[in-house]
Design a protein that fits this description.
The protein is an alpha/beta fold. It contains nine helices and seven strands, in the order H-H-E-H-E-H-E-H-E-H-E-E-H-H-E-H. It has one domain: 3-Layer(aba) Sandwich (Rossmann fold), CATH 3.40.50. Helix 4 links the parallel strand 2 and strand 3. The two termini are about 30 Å apart.
Length: about 240
């Protein structure tokens, strides 16, 4: 039996929005299904990163949007694979809405280690969370911001990105979800400050910025989120 190769296309920020809309409206694929499929694709790569480690641990940093929702779904899946997981939310819980809020609710009911970043204690909270996840040997997952970012990072999120990059310099491996947070998905431009990932799992399709700024993304894997190949093709064949 011959298997068709996966369809690899490149989609802009606007085309990604359109793909999500059409998957939902034309095919009836709810967003939370795409989020779960995304988490499964990221899980596969994350487990590969952890394969050689005797006591695997992961620190997952989750923003309040769909990117953070992917991270929360990933946390549950990795926990179920006996990986030590520590989650840090970068915004108050009430800012998590829709599918991300649903994933957060599951994580809370499972009583996973989930902390909230508040105020000026960014570095201390993250340092403690990393130690509890296994120290510099833990995998750090950047699930802060996705393809929708189009303005420079500031405040807490900028501080978190700077902390991630310092941890990377100390030897931690960093996996970014969809695009490195702080990178413009269309241009590859660094919006103030951006994560320097060792591996990026980009979802459904390549993003133009990943091809233009490979130094930020590291190794890039395209994660299948279950969108039919015909819909992917139509997204770029208009």
């Amino acid at each position: 039996m011959h298997h068709r190769p996966p369809v690899i296309v490149t989609l802009s920020r606007q085309e990604v929005r359109e793909l999500d809309r059409r998957a939902c409206e034309e095919l009836g694929m709810p967003g939370i299904l795409l989020m779960e499929n995304a988490a499964a694709a990221i899980e596969e790569v994350a487990l590969g990163c952890l394969a050689e480690r005797a006591d695997p641990g992961v620190l997952i940093l989750c923003g309040p949007g769909n990117n953070g929702g992917d991270g929360l779904a990933l946390a549950r899946r990795l926990h179920n694979r006996a990986v030590r997981v520590v989650i840090v939310l970068t915004a108050p819980e009430e800012r998590y809405r829709g599918d991300a809020a649903a994933m957060l609710g599951i994580v809370r009911r499972m009583e996973l280690d989930c902390r909230v970043l508040e105020g000026s204690e960014v570095e201390a909270v993250l340092d403690a969370a990393l130690q509890d996840a296994g120290g510099d040997g833990a995998l750090i997952v950047d699930a802060l911001l996705g393809t929708g970012l189009d303005r420079p990072l500031e405040g807490v999120v900028a501080s978190v990105v700077a902390w991630i990059n310092r941890a990377r310099e100390r030897g931690s491996e960093v996996l970014s979800v969809d695009v490195p947070s702080g990178m413009d998905a269309d241009t590859g431009q660094e919006l103030g400050v951006a994560v320097r990932a060792t591996v990026t799992v980009t979802l459904a399709a390549m993003k133009p910025g990943l091809l233009k700024a490979p130094g930020l993304a590291g190794r890039v894997e395209v994660g299948d989120i279950g969108v039919p190949r015909e819909l992917l093709r139509r997204s770029v064949a208009r």
